[in-house]
């Protein structure tokens, strides 16, 4: 098994974020989200059709845009692209952040503060909204042709002799995701690499499957896959 040691900047923030800082983030989220969500902090709706009005969704999306870009098309590599992402995946991640099941790498504490003020209707509406948006097209990653070819090979075919399964078997041949498996095509390479490292280091406890998938991969292989996916 190859174990990648994350740098201090990738260590979980639960142990390092001061309590007063988290409280300040939560207060900021309340001030921003409460007017937009109205009754979101009240009883949690359970009906599948119970979603927010389009006007309210747009107001919440404006808050998301401060980090994730207009309509989820993030231009900053530390923030994931949400446009075109699978709704089921977005919903699952927001609920995991809300319940503090997901807390592993930088800035997830900020998202916990935000997700804590989203009820099921808001989460469902946001997931559906971002899935409908046009994703970013592939962009050069700065990696060499050899590295990109290796990333493509690993994604499409894997490396069976080392126990590396093809990423496409879950995420689709075009990396567009399927059902609860996320879209990876066009995602920022630095963000993808960080998440792959977090899975390998077991810092995303709800990602048991990905822990197994990344365990036999070398650091160079993780980088190659991430670089290639940004170009899709």
Describe this structure in words.
The protein has helices at residues 19-37, 54-68, 87-98, 108-115, 120-132, 145-157, 168-171, 189-200, 208-214, 219-230. The chain folds into 2 domains: 8-132, Cytochrome Bc1 Complex, Chain D, domain 2 (Orthogonal Bundle); 145-230, Cytochrome c-like domain (Cytochrome Bc1 Complex, Chain D, domain 2, Orthogonal Bundle). Helix 1 packs antiparallel against helix 2 (54-68) and helix 1 (19-37) crosses helix 4 (108-115). The protein contains 10 helices and no strands. It is mainly alpha-helical and 232 residues long. The model is unreliable at 1-20 and 38-48 (pLDDT under 50). Residues 1-40 form the signal peptide.
CATH top level of the largest domain is Mainly Alpha
Give the number of helices: 10
Low-pLDDT stretches: 1-20, 38-48
- Summarize model confidence as the mean pLDDT: 83
Count of domains: 2
Number of strands: 0
Q: What's the end-to-end separation, in Å? A: 29 Å
Structural class: mainly alpha
Going by CATH, the architecture of the largest domain would be Orthogonal Bundle
Say what the CATH topology of the largest domain is. Cytochrome Bc1 Complex, Chain D, domain 2
State which percent range the strand residues make up: under 5%
Sum up the overall morphology in one term: globular
Task: Name the helix and strand elements from N-terminus to C-terminus, one letter apiece.
Answer: HHHHHHHHHH
Largest beta-sheet details: none
Helix content: 40-55%
> At the fourth CATH level, what is the homologous superfamily of the largest domain?
Cytochrome c-like domain
